[in-house]
Amino acid sequence: DNGDEASGYKESGYLPEAFVNMLALLGWNPGTEQEIFTMDELISSFSLERVGKSGSKFDPEKTKWFNQQWMQRIPLEQVILMCIPLLQEKGVNVPALKIAAVCEKVRDRLVFPQDIWQHAHYFFEAPQSYDRKLVQKNWKKDIPNTMETIATMLSNISDFSTKNIEEQVKKHIQSHELHMGQIMICLRLSLVGNATGIHLFDIMEFIGKDETVARILTAIEIFSEL
How confident is the model at residue 194 (pLDDT cuts 50, 70, 90)? Predict the structure, then answer.
């Protein structure tokens, strides 16, 4: 179930392309491994000879899969137009170009347009909660001081681009003989609140230097009380 029980498939976020694609394959077998078909491909490939005689079984999970596949295939502009009002409902008020950049980064994770907030909230707001188990596992006694030095280092970076941030952070980790995996998890916890999300340094570039440093310092304060 995805949304109000009284709503239809369209209202639940299913794309017409995905639903037609799914319906066509319910009773028809193209005779190949191909599963994703445009309308033109369905028209040119369809034949009554390959329509099955037995009853078809509707698979809700497979239908969601079709929708996710089509979310990646429709024009990015269409994804953006669907996601803008959904983000505005959450109080997001940023230039359309920024929303476009976010949609491009996370569209492969979206099953439905309304999944955008689940997969992109950390671009627009600091963590509202943290994965306590992950914090307890990785946030050891020496981490607060380490994270403070990283925050200071980040605040002094003039070129706050993905590539340069990554180079500087990894250089800092190596020169101080820190554990790469642990520091990366702690940074992600600070910025996102858990272990999810896209490339860490893409997140940093998007939210900017000040917000990145602020989230790290907030995490240091909050985690000291956990």
Answer: very high
Mapping DSSP onto H, E and C, the string for 95-115 reads CHHHHHHHHHHHHHHCCCHHH
Rounded Cα–Cα distance for residues 173 and 177 (Å)? 6
The number of CA neighbours under 13 Å toward the Cβ of 106 is 28
Average pLDDT over residues 12-34: 90
The CATH fold assigned to 132-223 is Arc Repressor Mutant, subunit A (1.10.10)
In order of 23, 45, 50, the CA distances from 54 in angstroms are: 15, 21, 12
Name the pTM for this structure. Answer: 0.85
From the options 1.10.3430.10, 3.30.230.70, 3.30.360.10, 1.10.1160.10, give the CATH code of 16-73. Answer: 1.10.1160.10
The tens digit of pLDDT for each residue in 9-21 reads 888 999 999 999 9
